[in-house]
């Protein structure tokens, strides 16, 4: 996902107009929406200081706005990373039965990555997805958790997260 798409996604989640975001960033009222449109369409790329300011205005972790250092947009890129993990002895492949998508075969390939901290991150993500499925958290809370991760992480209830993401009901 491009930087512009990421900005648009979070801006809309925050229910802000392009003009409101631009003004909050200090742009002139007459051109505030134009500048944000340029960022969102990719005709301009925001500098890191602008992205930092945007993250602050939108109350998100900057990681949810910028592209990852390693782009994982192509299957070939993902495979390359998996090959590296395999070379380090940190990866296992196995068959898994999954009937969640009728377009795909029911037997799929599962990947186990032997990296403790990543497993902890994935376990918490799995918990959030299950809470969403079970109706324990809302879609907005789930999105809030993701766009503020890792400051929204609580190590599966062991700690208090640095960023509040869940509405107290």
TrEMBL record:
SMART domains: HTH_XRE (SM00530). Residues 7-65 form the HTH cro/C1-type domain. Residues 149-169 are annotated as: Disordered. GO terms for molecular function: DNA binding. Residues 158-169 have a biased composition (Low complexity). This is Transcriptional regulator. The lineage of its organism: Bacteria, Bacillati, Bacillota, Bacilli, Bacillales.
């Amino acid at each position: 996902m491009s930087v512009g798409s990421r900005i648009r996604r979070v801006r809309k989640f925050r229910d802000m107009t392009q003009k409101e975001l631009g003004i909050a960033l200090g742009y002139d009222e007459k051109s505030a929406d134009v500048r944000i449109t340029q960022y969102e369409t990719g005709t301009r790329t925001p500098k890191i200081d602008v992205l930092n300011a945007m993250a602050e205005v939108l109350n998100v972790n900057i990681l949810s706005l910028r592209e990852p250092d390693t782009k994982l947009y192509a299957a070939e890129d993902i495979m390359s990373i998996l090959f590296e993990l395999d070379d380090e002895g940190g990866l296992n492949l196995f068959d898994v039965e999954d009937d969640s998508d009728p377009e795909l075969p029911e037997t799929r390939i599962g990947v186990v990555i032997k990296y403790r901290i990543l497993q902890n991150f994935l376990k918490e993500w799995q918990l959030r997805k299950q809470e969403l499925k079970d109706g324990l958290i809302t879609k907005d809370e789930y999105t809030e958790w993701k766009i503020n991760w890792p400051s929204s992480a609580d190590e599966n209830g062991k700690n208090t997260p640095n960023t509040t993401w869940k509405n107290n009901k």
